[in-house]
Amino acid sequence: MSPNLADLFFSSFGETLLMVGVSGLIGTLAGVPLGVALYVAGGANARKASRLAVVASYLTYALRATPSIIILAVAITFSHFVLGASAGLAAAIIPLVIIATPFVARQTETALHQAGSNQTQATLDAGQNNKALRQLLPLAAPGIVAGIGLTLACLVGYSALAGALGGGGLGDYGIRHGYSEFRPLLLLAVVLALIVLAETAQALGYGAARLLGGEQAGKAGRLFSFIGRSR
């Protein structure tokens, strides 16, 4: 690898970190409250849930059912009209946020269901949502943290896909300088870097979850790994 390609590799690595970090942060800030709303709106509480929570649940399910490549293509085109740029980090971060938000919401909803009890459900059914959530959120925290780690790991892969569509980062670097110029060793370096990033994010998430919840976090980790693969 020439010095110029090495410099481009490290700059692309930094772009991928930025894309995953920013989209993961925004997706978490939006997805955790959305997941709580989905939990409150689900099950026996569906009739008592606010219209906003019900609408949010339908939108989340619609985004989950939409293939990620379609979200990326449409959102990057949308970024072109809104931001005046069809390529680059700004164009890639928007679709990654759209993907991350329902993903985090799903993990949060799953963690709340897993940590819930009959007593908590009865409190929710009685309309005492704030009281029930104060009891439930600390119990669900390990699962939520594990889900965020899995989300970041998945965003690494989605960032590479966005890069292949012109969004920058390691995906764009691999397509331009590895695939198009037929440099298999360079492509291998990109793949290894993406694997290391994804596994590191997931390991950090599960490690933090274990510190918060011990065995419960391990169960959540196995469950969320299955959910992530199914997405």
Key features of this structure:
single chain; 231 residues; mainly alpha; MetI-like fold; globular; disordered C terminus
Task: Walk me through what this model shows.
87% of the residues lie in helices and 0% in strands. By secondary structure, the chain is mainly α. It has a single domain, classed as MetI-like (MetI-like fold, Orthogonal Bundle), CATH 1.10.3720.10. Helix 2 (51-65) packs across helix 4 (89-115), helix 6 (129-167) crosses helix 9 and helix 8 runs antiparallel to helix 9 (215-230).
Task: Offer a quick outline of the entry.
This protein has 231 residues and is mainly α. It has nine helices and no strands. The protein has a single domain, classed as Orthogonal Bundle (MetI-like fold), CATH 1.10.3720.
Number of structural domains = 1
State the end-to-end distance: 35 Å
Largest sheet: none
- Please tally the helical runs, counting DSSP H or I stretches of 4 or more residues: 9
**What is the CATH third-level topology name?**
MetI-like fold
CATH architecture classification name = Orthogonal Bundle
Order of helices and strands: HHHHHHHHH
Query: Can you tell me the CATH superfamily?
Result: MetI-like
- CATH class, named Mainly Alpha
